[in-house]
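just leaving the lab so this will be short. what follows is a protein written twice so to speak, once as letters and once as structure tokens for the fold. can you read through it and tell me how you think this chain folds. anything you notice is useful, everything is just below:
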Amino acid sequence: MKLLVLDAGHCLNLALARLVHRRSDTELVIEPGLAVDAAHLRELAPDAVIIPPLSAPMEIEPAAVITHGEGVEACLAACRQTDTPLVWCVSDQLYQDGFETPIDEHVIPAPRDESLRRLIAVGDSIRRSHPRHLIVRLGPLFALEGGHAWLSGVIDSLVNGEEVRAAQDVIFCPTSADAVAMALVGMLHQLACGSNAWGAYHLAGTEPVSAYTFTSMVRTQLSTRLEGLGEHIALGEVKALKHHHDQPLRRVLNCRRVLEAFGVHQKPWRLEVGRLLDEWCQAHQVTSEEDRASP
């Protein structure tokens, strides 16, 4: 299977590259930006095109959100002309106001923000005009490297002694980029083998948590690991922010359908964070030893 992945450098694309490197049944072509046309798709002949999510669309310039939507539309047009399956990953922030209960796949986001509504219109167009599609709504992605990796930025700030601010009243399910990569490749292989389970799916980590609690846990576990290595680093503090004074905003995705259709289980984000912190500490220890050995 050959997959074309757009927006090189995104943390999800790096996770896909690491995964595919360990497999013999999947080839990955990664290209910058979202610019792809039908002629290029005919030349490459990929089995699917994957567009990684625009991270935190509520927190960036509306123009960037609109530009992303235009890129997805152009990609959709090329995929329709060549009958190439399209996988579009989107942020859970499209559910701008959240829900009190876990959000099922059939619930179409209805954000108030105009630029976010532009993305909803793109999704409507995909569902209406291109049957062989996956729209995969994700919780906040985290990884150690790549664009929009989140966790790497938290670690860097803490190690530099900087204060990290995080919302205490926004509840979501953090999602490992590695887990998403594994799920996407598995889903696409099943679809290539005759499954007809195209459509919208939710994919997120287990255990809803606030950004503040997530970040605090990262700080605690990082501190414990560094002390175990004999490293004495004064980590920065985590400050709680409140944006919703009446009640917490819950943005929890119900991921039952992806389990039923593809057998994909949600990965516990605590275990994934622990694994990544172990990797970071191993790399940090090697770097420290090399620095001490340098003349």
